[in-house]
Amino acid sequence: MKYDFTTRVSRTGRGNLKDLMFTPSAIRQHNLPSFSGAEFEFRTAQPVIDAMKECAENGLMGFTIADQNYRDHIVWWVKNIRKADISPDWILPMQGTIFSVASAIRLFVKPEEHMVLMTPDYNRYDQAARRLKRGTTIFSPMIEKEGRFHPDFEDLERKFSDPKAKLFVLCNPDNPTGQVLSEEELHQLLSLARKYRMPILSDEIFADIPLNGKPVPLLTALAKDSDLVISILSMGKTFSFTGVNHANAIIRNPGLYRAFEEQRTADHFGSIDPMAYAALIGGYTPAGAEWLSQLIEVLKRNTDRFLNFFSSFEGVKAYTPDAGYVLWADLSALGMEPDALFRMLEEEALFACDRGEEYYGGKCCARICTAVMETEVIAAIGRLEKVFAAHGFRRKEE
């Protein structure tokens, strides 16, 4: 079956955060999609929509738990999409990825202690720690080499050896770069965490969407039974389902599972949203996998279009993502001040994207969402072409 990635969703009158708070007025006035925020501009998967319709028609919206059917669908999905084997007993439903991060912070980090992050990174992990008033986040900048970002293991060891460092939050695939750590790097990270008994919460919610044909390793599957590792999986990015608060923690260490489950209870976890349950049962299926394979082809074409455009200018760095639908570009070589740069993009090119400094990157870096209809991507690049030419930005010599 051929699925629809050409019909734009309507955000009007639906209280949509991206539309109301993150889409500049100039973009909205021209009825153009925004390339900020990691949400689809097209509809989610039809198998998910059909499953939620059936749930609504059935009319049961009561308390819902992770029964065997729910667990079996997750096991099947992880085996077929991530190429990893997990036990149904490792699955712990949560009320969202950031809810999970907050629970881990409460479990491991006292107010005078620290959480460790690698940068550039997703900004809401540190936001969660600050809201909870749990210590100071310690940042370890990644090493950029030949267009790739790598952990600085010497710096991480210094950070992990600090007696007040109590939790490491990993984003893999990384948000905002979309790059994936190699299996060798993940094993090295596990070894370092093992040395210092450092708990790792691994946010893997973009991992279902490989763009390079390589499954993204599941950290919990690489870990030992004694390791303090929590992998977070979610339909949030795979099916643009971020507004429905849900996630699943995958934990193979029995003691850690019990401790995290107790913390989840203390954090007032209620039950699985019936619509989230239905969506997972509909999405984590062969039909959902077929839809995902078609989505990936659209994202690959859009990603290539942006990479080809940005990398054609002198000094501009556009980093090839391995998974997901965010692309990271360093536009500092254009020689503009950050405010002027983003004003030019929004007002002249009618192109809205996320500022890199929000993700602990350079002030002239941009995060661009590629989950947009292909016709709109082509049109946006056309507008960027004209504006860049008008400003005299130099192309690389052929």
Describe the structure.
With 398 residues, this protein is α/β, with parallel strands linked by helices. The protein has 2 domains: 17-45 and 289-391, Alpha-Beta Complex (Aspartate Aminotransferase, domain 1); 61-287, Aspartate Aminotransferase, domain 2, CATH 3.40.640. The protein is built from 14 helices and 13 strands. The strands form 3 sheets. The protein has a 7-stranded mixed beta sheet, sandwiched between helices. It is globular.
Question: What labels describe this entry?
Answer:
pyridoxal phosphate, Aspartate Aminotransferase, domain 2, 2 domains, Aspartate Aminotransferase, domain 1, alpha/beta, 398 residues
Give a topology summary:
Layout: H1 17-21, H2 25-29, H3 46-58, H4 68-82, E1 91-94, H5 97-108, E2 114-119, H6 124-132, E3 136-141, E4 143-145, E5 148-150, H7 153-160, E6 165-171, H8 183-196, E7 200-203, H9 219-222, E8 229-233, E9 247-250, H10 254-266, H11 274-283, H12 286-310, E10 317-319, E11 326-330, H13 338-348, E12 354-355, E13 365-369, H14 374-390
Parallel strand pairs: 2-3, 2-6, 6-7, 7-8
Antiparallel strand pairs: 1-9, 4-5, 8-9, 10-11, 11-13, 12-13
Helix pairs in contact: 3-11, 5-6, 5-10, 7-8, 12-14
Question: What's a quick, concise take on this entry?
Answer:
InterPro entries: Aminotransferase_I/II_large, Class-II_PLP-Dep_Aminotrans, PyrdxlP-dep_Trfase, PyrdxlP-dep_Trfase_major, PyrdxlP-dep_Trfase_small. This protein has 398 residues and is of the alpha/beta class. It is built from 14 helices and 13 strands.
